[in-house]
């Protein structure tokens, strides 16, 4: 096992999103000596409220911006003395990738390339943890008893998975060509509080709360494995400190369930008759039947799944019941086949200026930094922070 690694200043991309926000909160709270810098462009599935638990922490800073901006990324790495990157930022919803695949290429491949090149230019990064997905492996045979291991061939079957595999190839190449200290993770599905309801479990929960049908693609026999968000956050904590450079780690569980099983379990919690509540709809253009991972390598670092499905689902339902308006109007996301243009923020810019101001003033956050390059601007606000919004000064 590698010598334990201790970071000093971590850049977490996409941390106003679901999984990364849980990771950022866990690390910021547990390791007050680590500086945590978050970079997020606040896309439709991100929310500053996800970061409220650490917004006033002295070791936390938020930067609004796009990983595709080379000037911004280089500026942050240098001025914040970043030695570690945990790269979560990505377009992730498979349905959207079938109709908006160029956006996935731009965010997932080009954005990753910008980060890698900035790491090469600065020469100061000691860990680059790239977050990928189990979908890069493609379908697992239905009768397979051993899951895909980290050396298995990558055979992505949808545009989303293809862009994540492409990003992985860049990460691997920069590790080989430039000696960049890279680690890659590939994870099963994650669920829990704060997840945007385009994903299966929060979508079904919100629909069940409204008494509306739960749409199942195809016949519901597709098999998936689900991990609770806090278990996954712990996995990233373990990989950050104990993961070996140049290695890949699956973050998975051997406990599988069909989409139909998930729907029935949610119906049971809400006392709904599954036969009446479930509605079968057209399948995706292609829908992998099964993803199954070999998780032994990560277990060798000391990680194991802690949250049973029944417990995790109960916690998740309770959170959505208590926070039903957390995301505002998500009617477009709750459709059987949502499109990117139906999501909040796609018909016009979000009120990020107001969100940022509220985030700063109400929570005393030391947040938001801006690049000094000529094409960008910065303005110091009352609390000494700087606001950067995609080249626009606020």
TrEMBL record:
It comes from the Eukaryota. Its cofactor is NAD(+). One of its GO terms (biological process) is nucleotide-sugar metabolic process. Residues 11-316 form the NAD(P)-binding domain. The keyword Membrane does not apply. GO terms for molecular function: lyase activity. Keywords: Lyase, NAD. CDD domains: dTDP_GD_SDR_e. SUPFAM superfamilies: NAD(P)-binding Rossmann-fold domains. NCBIfam families: dTDP_gluc_dehyt. This is NAD(P)-binding domain-containing protein. It comes from Urochloa decumbens.
